[in-house]
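User: Good morning. I'm curious how glutathione would be positioned relative to this chain. Could you predict the structure with it bound?
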Amino acid sequence: MIELFSANTPNGKKISIMLEEIGYEYKVTKVDINNKEQFKEDFKKISPFSKIPVIIDHKNKKTIFESGAILIYLAELSGKFYNEKDKTEINQWLMAQMGYIGPMLGQHHQFHHYNPGKSKFGEDRYFKISKAIYNDLDLRLSQSKFLAGEEYSIADIATWPWIARHDWHDIGLKNYKSLTRWYNDIAGRAAVIKGYDFMNKGEKIPTP
Ligand SMILES: N[C@@H](CCC(=O)N[C@@H](CS)C(=O)NCC(=O)O)C(=O)O
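Assistant: Good morning! Here's the predicted structure, ligand included:
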């Protein structure tokens, strides 16, 4: 059994979607990051930077933090969504999500969605970068069915929950034809619908 320590955020949803995709039994332990539960001493023991998500694989007695590392762990354990032949390609797109797409869209959320009017520089900077990310993903997906090639992979699972916040981005997802095609394809997967609502709030995936 996998225990998932998480909150209802894009990084949190990556892992519930993956667990649904591989059909593993899991239990969610909520970490209320708005009430600073991530800073509790017990949680810091399993998450050195006090961030969700974290998993404990109780069967194999392993604790893993960092969503990209968790996705790789679960992919290798299940033998799914991390094809040997595409590994280098998947790694590139997964690292791009972890090091660029997620952090930049995350800043866009901070300046544009949560704190508008506080910093024109921050708002403009991350709006511009987020638009560039939409453009770059759209270009890639006009050439390739999924991010790392013809098969759905952990790179898509890592990136999709961030684009699922498109209504916060105000960029107009529907104007990006290939990104929308990819987004809708993934949004229609039963595991994604279930993993998206892993907090069981009846949450629906936002349409473009
Ligand atoms: N690189 C980390 C980022 C994790 C992350 O930023 N988690 C956020 C929620 S999406 C968090 O725990 N925030 C609480 C805080 O920063 O205090 C990963 O991908 O796992």
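Residues 87-114 form the longest helix (28 residues). The first strand starts at residue 2 and ends at 6.
Let me know if you'd like a different ligand tried.
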